[in-house]
Amino acid sequence: MIDQQRLWDERAARDYDTPGEGMFAPDVLDRTVERLARLADGGRALEFAIGTGRVAIPLSAAGVDVSGIELSHAMIARLREKVGEAEIPVVQGDMTTTFAGRDFSLAFLVFNTIANLLTQDEQVECFRNAARHLRPGGRFVVELWVPQLRSLAPGHPGTVEVSRPGYLLVDTYDTIRQLVISHHVRFGPDLADGSDARMSRTPQRYVWPGELDLMARLAGFDLEARWADWDGEQFTADSRSHVSVYRLAGPG
């Protein structure tokens, strides 16, 4: 059993924020917020695993009424340094069971976070929990990476995903259980704790797009659209990630 509170602790919350860079870069974040605002269609939005507010804060600033669910106390504390409860309400808890209200027009789960649920059953329950929050015809949006198993060399169950100054990301795969461990190695003179290098690990359960679609159908959703990115580029066999939009049965 993974202790998610320990995994997403104060240091993880601090390291998560990289203002203006990476997933916080304007060319990434602006497109994400613009697309989600359109999909909300004037209604309320709920972010599963809201984290430190990377998407929720600018989405709220764009005029969308945003609430959140978040398991990590440290992530919520970081979010609260930026905005108050009145602006973006957050319920602390697991995204598979925690309830934050009804009649949302949009629920969303970005940046591969559904993979933090390490069993198929938990991932199915995440879809069912999204359905409980949405009004008929509401949308559930999932941003997720595509497993890169084609890049695995025979007999070598690991890949180097990122290699840049100060950071190395190595993924190791358990293809029987559909699990991948991401090994994050940070090094150089700028580490806050003064060490030469620091390593952390994050486990994930990878999901193929077709499997995700079946999970959605079990919860009463139909696939409305799938893009390769937030710009709406066509999803192909070579796409490394996807943004999938599911629509709950009913008018809308």
Automatic annotation (TrEMBL):
One of its GO terms (molecular function) is methyltransferase activity. Keywords: Methyltransferase, Transferase. It holds the Pfam family Methyltransf_25. It is an enzyme of class 2 (transferase). Residues 46-138 form the Methyltransferase domain. One of its GO terms (biological process) is methylation. InterPro entries: Methyltransf_25 (IPR041698), SAM-dependent_MTases_sf (IPR029063). CDD domains: AdoMet_MTases. Its EC number is 2.1.1.-. This is Class I SAM-dependent methyltransferase.
